């Protein structure tokens, strides 16, 4: 179906399935609308938004829902004057009605064809400038999202939503004493209908946490009866240091949905049983050994170098998770009137995880050695260097989290529309049991003393009201959006000692406790103004009031600090201007301020565990960033090309810096403000369909980022040692390339490649060796996937991730070559 030219309103021919008929890569105006659970949105524009394209035969064969009648189409956002306009009719979207910034999107059919998706975050694998630090299938505590100027230690600098409900965990940032990645497990790959990514803090509808990117998962909502089932298996042969094993992950899911009159419903169930590779390792610096014969003579230690290039022995493996996860999702939508819809969502995720460490060392009789003084090749490790419980921590975790969302929204497409919504995320059960420092192998596997960390009572609640005013719906010269929002976060973590059996006994005496509340109240407004035929401007402003209260840190049963309440106010202006320079070319400039408030954990979370310590700072300043973009987007007829220059200046950047204390044999994380960080860069993204021959789809991106610490009164070792250094976890170069071949209506094959250049993990860039435990390495990874549709209902797919078996690191080792196989039924 032809698309409408944004410049003249005339019809222009778009290639079927081309990016011109889907989601544009360039957006030109600021947006509005809180990212909360919402039914479909509607926006009046001049010229009218393009009608949805007729799916290509290949798309229809890969996605049975794509054959829905035209009246049910309009699922993907469309572009008018460089502005992405969200008009989700059949598929609800929580996005603002107009997106002011660079935007990328992937549909269910595209994800199914090209990605061996075992978790929701896999859908982001080939998006420009994005990286998720996923270590194994079902990684629930370290899978941090990284973007252009935000590394994999800064989870609070991005926003992830599912059906409008916040999945990003702003109780903390990164993976310090506690871990705060997005709650990816609340979404399964099978239920994803579309995933949209907005880059940068240019929407007044989002808080300062959106400075990196906003990810919105839109899940299935049926228009007729549907039934789906999937079973999958992933096999990973893994070899590193003294580990040589094969790990497996099994997954199964089922879904049902229907629409009867005014009521539609969707139910999704899934289970994942996953074995991950070892993630941490017990080590001893070679230089700490004393020449002599003391200690038990052992063999099996692997000689390597740490991230500073110092020789060390790797003597054992830890954090090798076996996880069993269950997921349930229920969605209901009721059309109260033709223009008023009520919707409800319930999600339940539970996880059982076992972490079983293992020693590589063997005594002269061949028995495993997991404790006591040892001697490696004539070097004795005794006293504080002897093996202990901190080297091989046994862990057992039981988690059960729930989320709820409720919304009431009008969609009149007239002068006024409105929405009220609420969502909640609750840590119903969050128990983490760990063996103690004096509890060593092999006895720790059967019990003994340890700790229990209990997070019950932790969670967050969001409330929002939003309005849209179109003074002249027929012309659409103005679209005024505004809203009021409150987000409240509650952290409650108590760690208790267990003197008897840490695997089964109830909590004992208090070891340490962290608690506190934060609340963010926001009022925002914007006007998207089409002031001329080829021009559109947006002025927006977000006013925020942040409070922190009830902060308390118990360092032990007899030592505690009650922290005073705090309050901060902030204004974040937004400005965007777009120009339809030529019929197929849009130019855009955007500027926005973002204020990222400290999280509860960063303020109050001083904690100590067997192998880690987290030191907080209750006086942290808010992080303030100014971000700008200049973009040009060209419709190529067979695809689309986008070039984006970006720059960010961040004051008082909040960083949790993790260093290894060899004397205490533990990781120590300290939170601090870094005075100034400057980032400039260029991003190029392109895609084509049916080019250079029919059936071939290409997409790729290259990102260059120069991110430097320009001022810092703090330091790691000596004053000034961080100034002029690279921002951690931001590589200079990133690139993706995906080639998909739709052989016919049954067969498709995809090869994808991802590259990331060298980077550092420490603020002073002292970690010069990235290819080791606690290092961050460059990587080049090739993935493959083949899908065969047996008939209109059954399909089988297989693929290989990390085909070239690149051994790469981000503190922990990433998965090695993995083989995936799945069988699906869609009725």
TrEMBL record:
It is a multi-pass membrane protein. Keywords: Cell outer membrane, Ion transport, Membrane, Receptor, Signal, TonB box, Transmembrane, Transmembrane beta strand, Transport. This is Outer membrane receptor protein. Gene3D superfamilies: TonB-dependent receptor, beta-barrel domain, TonB-dependent receptor, plug domain. GO terms for cellular component: cell outer membrane. The lineage of its organism: Bacteria, Pseudomonadati, Pseudomonadota, Betaproteobacteria, Burkholderiales. Residues 1-44 form the signal peptide. Belongs to the TonB-dependent receptor family. Residues 352-803 form the TonB-dependent receptor-like beta-barrel domain. It is found in: Cell outer membrane. Residues 47-56 have a biased composition (Pro residues). GO terms for molecular function: siderophore uptake transmembrane transporter activity. It comes from the Bacteria. Coiled coil: none annotated. One of its GO terms (biological process) is siderophore transmembrane transport. Residues 37-46, 57-74 have a biased composition (Low complexity). Residues 1-20, 37-74 are annotated as: Disordered. Residues 98-214 form the TonB-dependent receptor plug domain.
């Amino acid at each position: 179906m032809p698309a409408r030219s944004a410049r003249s309103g005339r019809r222009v021919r778009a290639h079927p399935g081309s990016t011109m008929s889907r989601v544009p890569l360039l957006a030109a105006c600021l947006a509005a609308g809180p990212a909360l659970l919402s039914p479909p949105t509607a926006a009046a524009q001049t010229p009218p938004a393009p009608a949805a394209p007729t799916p290509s035969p290949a798309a229809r064969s890969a996605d049975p829902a794509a054959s829905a009648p035209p009246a049910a189409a309009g699922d993907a956002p469309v572009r008018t004057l460089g502005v992405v306009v969200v008009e989700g009719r059949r598929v609800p979207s929580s996005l603002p009605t107009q997106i002011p910034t660079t935007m990328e999107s992937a549909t269910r059919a595209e994800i199914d064809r090209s990605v061996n998706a075992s978790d929701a975050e896999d859908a982001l694998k080939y998006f420009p400038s994005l990286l998720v630090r996923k270590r194994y299938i079902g990684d629930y505590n370290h899978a941090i999202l990284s973007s252009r100027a935000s590394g994999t230690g800064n989870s609070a600098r991005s926003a992830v939503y599912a059906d409008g409900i916040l999945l990003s965990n702003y109780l903390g940032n990164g993976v310090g004493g506690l871990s705060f990645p997005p709650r990816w497990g609340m979404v399964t790959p099978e239920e994803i209908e579309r995933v949209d990514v907005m880059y940068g803090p240019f929407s007044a509808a989002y808080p300062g946490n959106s400075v990196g990117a906003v990810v919105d998962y839109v899940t299935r909502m049926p228009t007729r009866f549907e039934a789906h089932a999937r079973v999958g298996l992933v096999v990973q042969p893994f070899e590193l240091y003294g580990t040589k094993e094969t790990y497996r992950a099994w997954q199964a899911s089922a879904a049902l949905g229907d629409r009867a009159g005014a009521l539609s419903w969707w139910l999704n169930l899934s289970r994942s049983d996953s074995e991950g590779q070892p993630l941490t390792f017990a080590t001893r610096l070679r230089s700490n050994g004393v020449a002599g014969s003391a200690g038990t003579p052992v063999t099996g230690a692997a000689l390597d170098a740490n991230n500073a290039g110092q020789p060390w022995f790797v003597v054992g493996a830890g954090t090798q998770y076996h996880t069993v996860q269950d997921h349930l999702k229920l969605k209901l939508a009721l059309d109260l009137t033709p223009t008023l819809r009520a919707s409800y969502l319930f999600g339940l995720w539970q996880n059982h995880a076992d972490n079983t460490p293992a020693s590589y060392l063997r005594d002269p009789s061949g028995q495993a050695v997991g404790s006591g003084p040892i001697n490696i090749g004539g070097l004795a490790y005794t006293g504080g260097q002897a093996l202990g419980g901190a080297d091989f921590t046994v862990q057992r975790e039981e988690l059960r989290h729930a989320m709820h969302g409720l919304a009431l929204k009008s969609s009149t497409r007239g002068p006024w529309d409105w929405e009220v919504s609420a969502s909640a995320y609750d840590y119903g059960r969050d128990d983490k049991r760990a063996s103690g420092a004096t509890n060593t192998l092999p006895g720790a596997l059967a019990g003994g003393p340890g700790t229990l960390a209990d997070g019950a009572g932790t969670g967050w609640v969001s409330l929002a009201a939003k309005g849209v005013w179109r003074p002249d719906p027929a012309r659409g010269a103005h679209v005024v959006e505004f809203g009021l929002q409150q987000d409240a976060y509650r952290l409650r973590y108590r760690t208790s000692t267990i003197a008897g059996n840490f695997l089964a006994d109830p909590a004992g005496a208090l070891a340490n406790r962290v608690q506190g509340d934060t609340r963010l109240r926001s009022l925002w407004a914007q006007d998207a103004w089409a002031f001329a035929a080829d021009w559109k401007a947006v002025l927006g402003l977000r006013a925020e009031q942040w409070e922190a209260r009830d902060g308390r840190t118990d360092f032990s049963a007899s030592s505690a600090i009650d922290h005073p309440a705090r309050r901060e106010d902030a204004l974040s202006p937004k400005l965007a201007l777009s120009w339809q320079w030529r019929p197929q070319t849009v130019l855009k400039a955007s500027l926005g301020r973002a204020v990222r408030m400290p999280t509860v954990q960063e303020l109050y979370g001083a904690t100590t565990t067997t192998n880690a310590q987290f030191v907080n700072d209750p006086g942290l300043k808010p992080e303030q960033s100014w971000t700008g973009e200049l973009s040009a987007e060209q419709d190529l007829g067979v695809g689309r090309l986008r070039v984006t220059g970006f720059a960010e200046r961040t004051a008082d950047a909040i960083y949790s810096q993790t260093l290894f204390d060899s004397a205490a044999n533990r990781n120590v994380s300290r939170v601090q403000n870094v005075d100034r960080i400057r980032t400039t860069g260029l991003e190029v993204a392109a895609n084509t369909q049916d080019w250079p021959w029919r059936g071939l789809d290409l997409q790729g991106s290259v990102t260059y980022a120069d991110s430097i610490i320009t001022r810092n009164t703090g330091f790691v070792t000596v004053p000034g040692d961080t100034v002029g250094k690279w921002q951690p976890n931001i590589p200079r170069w990133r690139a993706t390339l995906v080639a998909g071949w739709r052989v016919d209506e049954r067969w498709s094959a995809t090869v994808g490649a991802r590259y990331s250049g060298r980077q550092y993990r420490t603020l002073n860039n002292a970690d010069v060796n990235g290819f080791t435990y606690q290092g961050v390495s460059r990587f080049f990874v090739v993935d493959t996937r083949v899908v065969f549709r047996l008939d209109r209902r059954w399909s089988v797919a297989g693929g290989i991730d990390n085909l070239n078996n690149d051994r790469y690191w981000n503190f922990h080792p990433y998965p090695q070559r993995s083989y995936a196989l799945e069988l699906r039924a869609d009725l």
